[in-house]
UniProtKB/TrEMBL annotation:
GO molecular function terms attached to this record: ATP binding; catalytic activity, acting on a protein; magnesium ion binding; phenylalanine-tRNA ligase activity; transferase activity; tRNA binding
Organism: Candidatus Enterocloster excrementipullorum
Cofactor annotation remark: Binds 2 magnesium ions per tetramer.
Compartments where located: Cytoplasm
GO biological process per UniProt: phenylalanyl-tRNA aminoacylation
Protein known as: Phenylalanine--tRNA ligase alpha subunit
Length: 339
């Protein structure tokens, strides 16, 4: 029995010394010290040992067990340490490597232009309001004096959800919504996205942005409209800017006009930018049609007002001298960073 014990012990220590992985140590523990392990089975043979010898043999088995356990523990610590060293060696941090760059975003030219327009009008006491992009036909057309069958609808063909709901083709419906709320006087601008069934090219997109303006009060005249837009143009494009009102037609204003600004590139002499004319068209405007006021429950004998609509992309393209609208929608950071 003693010999057997010696043999088991030696064998176990040899195996421990030779093992190079934690799992192997575990296997060794099971095969020697486990419930069915060699040392445990040896103990079962104790009944054949004479009673005098038993304590001694028992002591020897326990010593062997303690020894094997101790060695297993040592080997385990050594292996763990080795693994850690290995890991540290593999994961060296090179502090001289350049740090990962934090790419900062950039405000879009549309946003910069919009904030500029908002700043100017807020400075004149206007409020900034918003309206829904999915709009009723009634607000987008009917209450703006564009009944079914009116030719103005052809110019603003858009995307229909059903017969009475569409993607708004202009921000003008926000005028109707604001007037219907019944709070007077009104001095507001309404920026937002609009939609039309246009093909994409350098100057068109099925989705773009407008900024609507509306002023309703007692005694508002065309002179107020002219003064306001002149002030806006000078602030937006420079104090030298001249403004020209050309008669035009919009169903919801009477009289109506389109506004040109003197080319800020050539000062009005004529260049590639203004296509030789010296003028650049920037917006549509007019005095709110009495019928529109009536449809929005405002008495045209008591109140009058003006309205205007600016294309935001147009302003951004002009201000930053961008010659293709598509660049505004591609969101290439190299492009955006220039503004
Ligand atoms: N909604 C017009 C358009 O999209 C622009 C416009 C013209 C708005 C005249 C106005 C206005 O408020 O008075 O073509």
């Amino acid at each position: 029995m003693k010999e057997q014990l010696e043999k088991i012990k030696e064998e176990a220590l040899k195996q421990i010394a030779a093992s190079d992985a934690l799992e192997k140590l575990n296997d060794i523990r099971v095969s020697y010290l486990g419930k069915k392990g060699q040392l445990t089975s040896l103990l079962k043979g104790m009944k054949d040992v004479s009673p005098e010898e038993r304590p001694k043999v028992g002591q020897m088995v326990n010593d062997a067990r303690a020894l094997i356990e101790g060695r297993l523990e040592e080997a385990k610590t050594a292996l763990a340490q080795k693994a850690r060293e290995e890991q540290l060696r593999k994961e060296v941090i090179d502090v001289t490597l350049p740090a990962k760059r934090q790419e900062e975003g950039h405000r879009h030219p549309n946003t910069i232009a919009l904030e500029e327009v908002e700043r100017i009008f807020i400075g004149m006491g206007y409020e900034v309001v918003e309206g829904p992009e999915v709009e009723y036909d009634e607000y987008n057309f009917e209450k703006l004096n564009i009944p079914k069958g009116h030719p103005a609808r052809d110019e603003q063909d858009t995307f229909y959800i059903n017969d009475s709901i569409l993607l708004r083709s202009q921000t003008s419906p926000v005028q109707v919504r604001t007037m219907e709320q019944g709070k007077l006087p009104i001095r507001m601008i309404a920026p937002g996205r609009v939609f039309r069934s246009d093909e994409v090219d350098a100057t068109h997109s099925p989705s773009f942005h407008q900024i609507e303006g509306l002023v309703i009060d007692k005694g508002i005249t065309f002179a107020d409209l002219k003064g306001t837009l002149e002030e806006f143009a000078k602030e937006m494009f420079g104090t030298e800017t001249k403004v020209k009102f050309r008669p035009h037609h919009f169903p919801f204003t009477e009289p109506s006009a389109e506004v040109d600004v003197s080319c800020f590139k050539c000062g009005g002499k004529g260049c590639r930018f203004c296509k030789g004319s010296g003028w650049i068209e920037i917006l549509g405007c007019g005095m709110v049609h009495p019928h529109v006021l009536e449809m929005c429950n405002i008495d045209p004998d008591e109140y009058s007002g003006f309205a205007f609509g600016v294309g935001l992309e147009r302003i951004a393209l002009l201000k930053y001298e961008i010659d293709d609208m598509r660049l505004l929608y591609e969101n290439d950071i190299r492009f955006l960073k220039q503004f």
